[in-house]
Amino acid sequence: MSEYVHGRRILVTGGAGFLGRRVCAQLEERGARELIVPRRSQCDLTRTDAVRALFEASRPEVVVHLAAEVGGIGANRAQPGRFFYANMAMGLHVVEEARRHGVAKLLGIATVCAYPKHTPVPFTEDDLWNGFPEETNAPYGVAKKALLLMMQSYRAQYGLNAIGLLPVNLFGPGDNFDPATSHVIPALIRRFIEARQRGDREVTCWGSGTVSREFLYVDDCAEAVALALERYDGAEPVNVGAGRETTIRELAERIRRLCGFDGAICWDRSQPDGQPRRCLDTSRAEEEFGFTARVELEEGLRRTIEFYEKQIDAAPSQG
Length: 319
Description:
Layout: E1 9-13, H1 18-29, E2 34-36, H2 48-58, E3 62-65, H3 73-78, H4 80-100, E4 105-109, H5 138-158, E5 162-167, E6 169-171, H6 184-198, E7 202-206, E8 212-213, E9 215-217, H7 218-231, E10 238-240, E11 246-247, H8 248-259, E12 264-268, H9 283-289, H10 297-314
Parallel strand pairs: 1-2, 1-3, 3-4, 4-5, 5-10, 6-9, 7-12
Antiparallel strand pairs: 8-11
Helix pairs in contact: 1-7, 2-4, 4-5, 6-8, 6-10, 8-10
């Protein structure tokens, strides 16, 4: 194991978030000397002056840029301008200040949404620029893809050691279960559990159910971030996933069963499916820094459902 993280002062934007908390735990285990985790209420990363002040006060040696504004299809359709601006602005300022302060390494998280809508499965990193992303999340995907290019450009001109990762959809305990902004797994978990509690006979899901997705347990992604920091210094972005594809229909049936809901699933085809298929070629991550996903989808879903049900049990009653 590399000693790269040991003794370093590391800035983790988004470090208090879903993925960020796990990444910080990984970095602490690897001996980071100090972790700087700015909170949104104290530092608006979309503002140049705020990001500059953050870097001047913290003087990080390494930067992990995880901060993002994200959501499912509904949230992307409702706020395309905000999703583009916020993700683009945060990345612009963080990369520029990393250059100005001469950080030893910058790791930026992009997204599977950056890939073209019609990408051959499995997606390889060489496919990234071969078309336009799926329309419902294109503003978010394009902003993140532009930041990958920015990091490569800064590497070429300024010698900034900037690396980029392309993770698939993450899930796990601590995910966002808000129906207005959640991704598909937490949204389905909440929907099926609430339907079970009410005694409903059916649950309606968006789209046709025929599209596919790939899902990565959040702790596995955090390990990939730590390994890449320690072992990877390449200019090319790297896919991070489990390398396994499942249809939304299969996913819904599995979550229905694990949640103990006995009713039917109905599909609302008037709602968008999003990208037709998603599944990554993850061979580069294994070759370059030794990452392979360890938590199977079924086990990860079981842990996530257990977490959510505990949250329900712990919530104060409304009566």
